[in-house]
Specification:
- This protein is of the alpha/beta class.
- Helices cover 32% and strands 19% of the residues.
- It folds into 2 domains: 12-70 and 223-297 and 404-455, FAD/NAD(P)-binding domain, CATH 3.50.50; 119-213 and 300-394, Alpha-Beta Complex (Polyamine Oxidase, Chain A, domain 2), CATH 3.90.660.10.
- It contains 13 helices and 21 strands.
- It is globular.
- It starts with 7 loop residues before the first helix and ends with a helix.
- The site of flavin-adenine dinucleotide has 41 residues, from helix 2 and helix 13.
């Protein structure tokens, strides 16, 4: 790929684009509302991060809150498995931007969590023949990836509905043949967005907001932050909502455990469930909401944790990148030896390969991931003594990983989902907050926003 230098123009243009779209968003999630809600009944569907933060806020304001959760546990896409001897995070793994104003930083502080910075620069990338790249070659990949995205930002006009892939094909086609850049587009962009570059919007591929600070992991297990949030809340587990009725007299929620009635309902069903229409709304959701639900992207990211009897990889390096010939196939690995005693490598599949991996059974997925490791470390790859895997697009209460701005979708689609419906039904969840979509802090803030909307009535 021809190296394109990152110009001041693109920084200014990015900023302009950001300012324009932020002005169009309305979410008042950072304002504080308080009111006495005693005597008001509020139902919350889903005990993930957004449902819990909304419930906590409303409970603190005196409302009678009940959470209805389909799964037999709380947390939704924040869930930790401790069976490998070190925490395996099935969903959220990192606190992105752990600055003081990130609400998840506060949650981590509340439990005195050990936070470990995962340094992005501590990384070895292996080429398609399994040879490690030099630090200089790695730097070139980073620069080329960054410059390519800056070039796309420069070229696109507001209103462009192309996918990232199609924009690259038009403005820098040689990049599509560059193994290094294609790897970075998958391991960085597709991983961070949870969709494939063939579907991600070129215009909004990085228009969202981020808190400051290098990403951290909670070495004692991420799901430990849930207990203080859920403490004392009335949560009905294994309660599957099937129908949501709302009208001027209140709301009626039908479940496998009977009928629940209340004054208001906050619905934090994941975007995958809203897209599937598995839960019925009466009256149906407004057309504008339905259109936005269809337009916002929802892909998958697959994780596999392989535990070996001994480490055959450089144990002090945080990440290993592998330039697999199939884009997105186990191309990024986290080394557990940098924060635990366990010989675990955590592999990731993203983009179009994630749903393919999701559909493999655990044994096939393990064999598939091992093939990639053997391309790098050959016969040194030892025997797997235990493993864990995720299949998010098959999870019947989620149907995917996290939302992203798909080609043709706009930030205002996320803002649309944040709009109250008949002042009875309020949507929450990571897919209703453009600024922080696809993150745990986004989910938290969306729950606070929905609670504030009720408090402000
Ligand atoms: C693989 C993966 C990696 C991720 N990595 C990160 C990361 O590193 N950092 C980060 O910040 N974020 C990450 N995320 C995103 C983060 O986990 C989510 O944004 C966040 O947890 C979503 O919270 P939520 O409340 O919106 O939805 P959820 O947590 O999905 O909660 C919705 C709840 O609704 C329930 N539900 C569904 N259907 C019904 C029904 N019919 N009746 C009753 N209940 C129902 C579900 O069981 C679920 O508990 C990751 C997600 C995944 C999947």
């Amino acid at each position: 790929m021809t190296k394109i230098s990152f110009s001041a123009i693109s920084i200014a243009r990015r900023q302009l684009l950001k300012t324009a779209l932020m002005a169009s968003l309305t979410a008042p999630f950072n304002r504080t509302f308080a009111a006495d809600l005693s005597g008001k009944k509020i139902l919350i569907i889903g005990a993930g991060m957004s449902g819990l933060s909304a419930a906590r806020k409303l409970d603190d304001n005196g409302a009678e809150v009940q959470i209805l959760e389909a799964k037999p546990h709380i947390g939704g896409r924040l869930r930790t498995d401790y069976g490998l001897g070190a925490p395996f995070e099935l969903g959220a793994g990192w606190v992105h931007g752990p600055s003081a104003n990130n609400p998840i930083t506060q949650s981590a502080k509340n439990i005195d969590a050990n936070l470990m910075v995962t340094h992005d620069a501590s990384e070895i990338i292996y080429d398609q023949t399994g040879n490690p790249l030099t630090p200089q070659q790695r730097e070139v990949i980073d620069d080329n990836w960054y410059d390519l995205l800056a070039l796309i930002d420069d070229e696109l006009e507001i209103g462009d509905t192309r996918s990232l892939y199609n924009a690259i094909k038009t403005f820098a086609p040689s990049a599509l043949k560059d193994e290094g850049v294609m790897w970075a587009l998958s391991a960085y962009t597709e991983f961070s967005k949870g969709g494939s570059i063939e579907n991600i919007s070129a215009l909004y591929h990085d228009a969202d907001e981020a808190f400051d600070g290098e990403d951290v992991i909670l070495t004692m297990g991420y799901d430990k932050i849930l207990a203080p949030l859920a403490k004392g809340l009335n949560i009905r587990l294994s309660t599957l909502v099937t129908d949501i009725e709302y009208g001027k007299n209140g709301v009626a929620i039908y479940t496998n455990k009977g009928l629940y009635k209340a004054d208001y309902v906050i619905c934090s069903l994941p975007l995958g469930i809203l897209k599937s229409a598995d839960v019925a709304f009466e009256p149906p959701l407004p057309k504008a909401h339905k259109t936005s639900i269809n337009k916002i992207g929802f892909g998958s990211v697959t994780k596999i944790a392989l535990k070996f009897d001994q480490a055959f990889w450089p144990i002090d390096t945080q990440y290993f990148g592998v330039q697999t010939t199939i884009k997105g196939r186990w191309n990024y690995w986290l080394n557990y030896r940098t924060f635990s005693q366990q010989n675990i490598l955590l592999g990731l599949s993203m983009g179009d390969y994630a749903p393919i991996a999701d559909n493999m059974n655990d044994a096939d997925m393990q064999a598939d991931a091992l093939k990639v490791l053997r391309d790098v470390w050959g016969d040194a790859v030892g025997e797997v003594i235990d493993m864990r895997a995720t299949h998010w697009s098959l999870d019947q209460h989620t149907l995917g990983a996290y939302s992203y701005v798909a080609a043709g979708c706009k930030p205002k689609d996320f803002a649309q989902l944040a709009k109250p419906i008949a002042n009875r039904l309020f949507l929450a969840g990571e897919h209703t907050i453009f600024e922080y979509a696809g993150t745990l802090h986004g989910a938290y803030l969306s729950g606070i926003r929905a609670a504030n909307q009720i408090l402000a009535l």
